[in-house]
């Protein structure tokens, strides 16, 4: 049985591509301007008026510099030109770089010939009108719908005419063409609605400035004048006089209807006029209902009355004021309510009495009711800690009459005179000019499409509505989204710096004040996942510093979660119909758990919270708000469940295998880890079989595979370390200062060979997925930092494996690894044009690491200069320095230990190892070229001349792997 779910409201047009046909003037020009004001990228179609179209594009570019405006020519009387209109538009370089489909189509182009009498209408007139007004609109609509269907979202607005109903000033041929267009629209509206595509028809009447109605020669006429006679003398004036409001319509009025049909949210502020005039859009409450009796109301009734929604009209107040909206406290979504300010929240709008007796009576009445409620709460509340007691004392203090009087003073002041509040004055990135409202909307859309699928914790309503709304309601998560969305785009550098500064200013109150909002927790987790860093704190090489910042951000997020008792969402059984507030907290707490485990494992640190994690196996159905979100084939609820299950496996592997040094050494000696690794391998295979069959977008699925392969590497590498530690213990027991041969002379004969081979396969698989299946520009660039680090860990692991000669055919194995490493370096570099980006810095680390390996090979070739031979066996565990068996006279030698200077799981020690070579300069420009040769020649690394020495002899000490 097929289950069909209700579609979510998605009326966001910011950043989408709109095509307006016939946009060089009239209604088309007005529609283009309206859509541009809504934040759309607009394609302006013209047939012959090239100058007008390009002038309009230039005007819009100057007004909205961050948006895209393109002109496209097509003669709609030519069938070939009509067929190629949409494909030619999407092939334009600027358009192709940002869009894959036309999301909004305004089919406005039309042909009108004012021939009223059928006897005067020639067959050619009929054919021309039908070709342009009906057939060409069908062809263009059909072409645009292909992309709309693929993305599951589209808006089609067909510009018809009242002539389709028999009116108008044109003949029957024009009426028939518009009638055909309107009938087509009605049919498509029902057919396409289930696919997320709406079709609307706008039927203008007498619109001036379109070329169809002459400009009136005069503006006055005598009452009682025969209108038909007036039409003969002054056609423009006669037609305008026949309109009930005694004027012609203007294109902007039609454009406002088109804009409403494209956003699909009539009656919701802000309206088009307020957007264009940069004014606040406020819905006035209804005054209907008869005589108002001035009677006293208790506080509870007043709050309910003020919070209740009413019908009303949009009124323009002051420039860029914030829309005023209240949400009833009874809906249980206090987090979604606007900040309370003004008297509207405390008294009924119709009640104008403000005498002191009335206020006192209301306050005392509210105080008595609150006292009774508090007494019951005191009797039933659990006092588990001092904080609970302090909360109760604060509630008692709030009952003092003086407090109520003080609270009412600002309410009366705000009620008597409310000064307009400029939203952007309270949001520095906008008030400083680094970002505009349209820019912010475009960045939010960019985040939703490219970043959100990998870590879908942002409250879904953030992606709807106007920016000013979320500046007031969710400043933390909004700023975090803007910071991450702008971090890798050079064109957004100024906006990114402004958002980063503002985010830093928001972090201090979180730490010192303990702001208890879910949005603050979400914001911290977003920053931890993508780890944008201020330019002055960026090092020249990647050495894991981002993870330290992420670890701290996750820690603060968890503490804020505890302050809001979010952990209870993972322990309690959810209600039958969970509120939006409960669902949002549940997602945020599960995300805290995942982020904490992931970053702590990468750093080798203890978890910020060992519990409570999810007390039961959470599934996609436990996150209904995520299940309702669809981005192409991606079901956010299923994706979240897959990530949660994998994180639980990560956590279990860490606790069982890597929990402490003493525990690891116990496992090395006892060998119990073999059973654990086998059990984990079985569960991992089950996870892969379960989730491998699900259909996700390629890059989202690739991220899951990267996590799977890294966990496979993390688990099986434990056996690698165990084998080396047992060899070290065996040597110490035999009292040998040096080994007599390679540690892995015959790897296949080693007891843990299958685990070692599995770890090498997992590392190779990580690099292969990155190099073969992930587009660095369209995929890796937007993935959370951890996925790039998974690949870095794998590359360092393979570097160490090469030094151990763990390949069945060493020459071929090492050659293949080097080829994969160079491919990885190239992929990382392509993620950004900035040499200080995360991709470039970690590419530089890998390059310098393999330069050291190449230098080692060169020195082994030149071993006649060394005091001792350098057999291919593991080195000792010791810091550089004079030791027995070490030739301190090697030219250029700095005593670095290739295997014991760092662990493959410790990027900080890797960075110290790389930078601790005076002959290598991390800013020497070796990585400034973004491309390598297409074949990734194996000589590319070996040819790098670096002169330093390794300590290649092992004296039986412990081995750091």
UniProtKB/TrEMBL annotation:
Q: Name one GO cellular component term.
A: nucleus
Annotated Gene Ontology MF terms?
Answer: DNA binding; DNA-binding transcription factor activity, RNA polymerase II-specific; oxidoreductase activity; zinc ion binding
GO aspect biological process, one term: DNA-templated transcription
PROSITE patterns reported in the protein's UniProt record: ADH_SHORT
Any keyword Oxidoreductase?
yes
Q: Where is the Xylanolytic transcriptional activator regulatory domain?
A: 550-625
The protein's superkingdom reads Eukaryota
User: Where is composition skewed (Low complexity) in this entry?
Assistant: 356-371
Stretches with biased composition (Basic residues): 288-297
Positions of region (Disordered): 285-371, 401-424, 856-886
Q: Which UniProt keywords apply?
A: Membrane, NADP, Nucleus, Oxidoreductase, Transmembrane, Transmembrane helix
Residue stretches spanning the membrane? 787-808
Q: Where is the signal peptide?
A: none
- InterPro entries (alphabetical): AAA_Catabolism_Regulators (IPR052780), NAD(P)-bd_dom_sf (IPR036291), Sc_DH/Rdtase_CS (IPR020904), SDR_fam (IPR002347), XnlR_reg_dom (IPR007219)
Which family does the UniProt entry place this protein in? Answer: Belongs to the short-chain dehydrogenases/reductases (SDR) family.
Identify this protein by name.
NAD(P)-binding domain protein
What lineage, starting at the top, does this entry show?
Eukaryota, Fungi, Dikarya, Ascomycota, Pezizomycotina
């Amino acid at each position: 049985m097929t289950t069909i779910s209700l579609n979510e409201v998605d009326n966001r047009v910011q950043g989408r591509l709109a095509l307006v046909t016939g946009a060089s003037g009239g209604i088309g020009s007005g529609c283009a301007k309206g859509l541009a004001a809504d934040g759309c990228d607009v394609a302006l179609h013209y047939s012959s008026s090239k100058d007008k179209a390009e002038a309009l594009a230039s005007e819009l570019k100057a007004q909205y510099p961050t948006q895209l405006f393109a002109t496209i020519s097509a003669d709609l009387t030519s069938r070939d030109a009509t067929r190629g209109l949409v494909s030619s538009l999407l092939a334009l370089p600027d358009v192709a770089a940002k869009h894959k489909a036309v999301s909004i189509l305004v089919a406005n182009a039309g042909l009108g010939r004012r021939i009223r009498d059928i006897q005067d209408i020639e067959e050619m007139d009929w054919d021309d009108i039908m070709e342009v007004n009906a057939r060409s609109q069908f062809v263009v609509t059909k072409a645009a719908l292909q992309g709309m269907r693929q993305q599951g979202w589209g808006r089609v607005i067909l510009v018809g005419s009242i002539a389709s109903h028999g009116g108008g000033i044109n003949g029957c041929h024009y009426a028939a063409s518009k009638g055909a267009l309107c009938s087509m629209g009605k049919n498509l509206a029902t057919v396409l609605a289930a696919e997320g595509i709406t079709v609307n028809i706008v039927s203008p009447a007498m619109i001036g400035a379109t070329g169809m109605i002459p400009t009136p020669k005069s503006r006055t006429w005598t009452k009682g004048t025969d209108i038909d006679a007036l039409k003969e003398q002054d056609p423009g004036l006669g037609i305008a006089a026949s309109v009930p409001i005694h004027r012609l319509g203007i294109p902007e009025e039609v454009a406002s209807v088109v804009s409403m049909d494209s956003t699909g949210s009539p009656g919701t502020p802000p309206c088009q006029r307020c957007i264009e005039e940069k004014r606040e859009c406020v819905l006035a409450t209804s005054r209907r209902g008869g005589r108002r009796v001035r009677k006293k109301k208790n506080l509870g009734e007043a709050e309910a009355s003020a919070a209740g929604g009413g019908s009303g009209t949009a009124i323009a107040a002051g420039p860029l004021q914030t829309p005023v909206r209240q949400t009833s406290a009874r809906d249980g979504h206090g987090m979604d309510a606007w900040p309370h300010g003004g008297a509207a929240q405390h008294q009924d709008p119709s009640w104008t009495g403000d005498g002191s007796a009335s206020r006192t009576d209301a306050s005392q009445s509210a105080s008595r009711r609150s006292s009774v409620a508090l007494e019951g709460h005191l009797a039933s509340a659990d006092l588990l800690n001092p904080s609970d007691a302090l909360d109760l004392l604060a509630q008692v203090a709030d009952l003092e009459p003086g407090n109520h009087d003080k609270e009412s003073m600002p309410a009366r002041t705000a009620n008597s005179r409310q000064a307009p509040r400029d939203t952007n004055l309270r949001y520095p990135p906008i008030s400083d000019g680094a970002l505009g409202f349209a820019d912010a909307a475009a960045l939010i859309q960019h985040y939703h499409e490219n970043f959100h699928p990998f870590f879908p914790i942002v409250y879904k309503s953030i992606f709807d509505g106007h920016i000013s709304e979320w500046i007031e309601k969710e400043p933390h998560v909004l700023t975090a989204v803007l910071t991450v969305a702008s971090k890798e785009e050079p064109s957004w550098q100024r906006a990114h710096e402004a958002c980063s500064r503002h985010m830093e200013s928001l972090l201090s109150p979180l730490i010192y004040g303990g702001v208890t909002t879910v949005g603050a927790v979400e914001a911290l987790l977003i920053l931890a996942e993508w780890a944008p860093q201020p330019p002055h704190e960026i090092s020249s090489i990647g050495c894991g510093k981002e993870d330290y910042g992420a670890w701290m951000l996750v820690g603060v997020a968890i503490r804020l979660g505890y302050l809001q008792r979010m952990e209870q969402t993972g322990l309690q059984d959810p209600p039958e119909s969970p509120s939006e507030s409960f669902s949002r907290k549940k997602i945020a707490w599960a995300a805290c758990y995942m982020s904490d485990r992931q970053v702590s494992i990468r750093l080798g640190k203890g978890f910020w919270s060992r519990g409570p994690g999810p007390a039961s196996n959470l599934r996609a159905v436990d996150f209904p708000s995520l299940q309702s979100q669809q981005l192409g084939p991606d079901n956010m609820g299923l994706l979240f469940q897959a990530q949660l299950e994998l994180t639980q496996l990560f956590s279990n592997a860490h606790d069982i295998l890597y929990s402490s040094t003493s525990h690891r050494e116990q496992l090395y000696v006892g060998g119990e880890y073999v059973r654990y690794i086998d059990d984990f391998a079985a569960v991992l295979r089950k996870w892969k079989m379960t989730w491998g069959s699900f259909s996700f977008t390629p890059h989202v699925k690739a991220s899951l595979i990267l996590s799977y392969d890294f966990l496979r590497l993390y688990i099986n590498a434990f056996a690698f370390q165990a084998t080396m530690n047992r060899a070290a213990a065996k040597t110490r027991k035999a009292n040998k200062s040096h080994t007599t041969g390679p540690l892995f002379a015959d790897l296949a004969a080693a007891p843990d060979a299958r685990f070692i081979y599995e770890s090498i396969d997992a590392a190779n698989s990580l690099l292969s997925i990155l190099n073969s299946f992930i587009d660095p520009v369209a995929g890796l660039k937007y993935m959370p930092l951890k996925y790039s680090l998974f690949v870095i860990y794998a590359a360092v692991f393979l570097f160490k494996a090469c030094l151990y000669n763990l390949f069945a055919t060493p020459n071929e194995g090492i050659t293949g690894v080097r080829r994969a490493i160079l491919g990885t370096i190239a992929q990382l570099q392509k993620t950004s044009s900035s040499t200080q980006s995360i991709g470039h810095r970690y590419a530089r680390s890998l390059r310098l690491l393999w330069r050291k390996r190449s230098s080692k090979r060169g020195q082994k070739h030149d071993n006649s200069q060394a005091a001792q031979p350098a057999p291919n066996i593991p080195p000792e565990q010791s810091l550089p320095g004079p030791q027995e068996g070490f030739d301190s006279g090697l030219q250029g030698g700095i005593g670095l230990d290739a295997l014991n200077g760092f662990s493959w799981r410790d990027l900080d020690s890797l960075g110290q190892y790389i930078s601790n070579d005076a002959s290598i300069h991390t800013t020497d420009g070796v990585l400034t070229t973004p491309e390598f040769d297409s074949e990734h020649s194996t000589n590319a690394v070996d040819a790098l001349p670096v002169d330093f020495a390794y300590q290649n002899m092992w004296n039986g000490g412990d081995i750091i792997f």
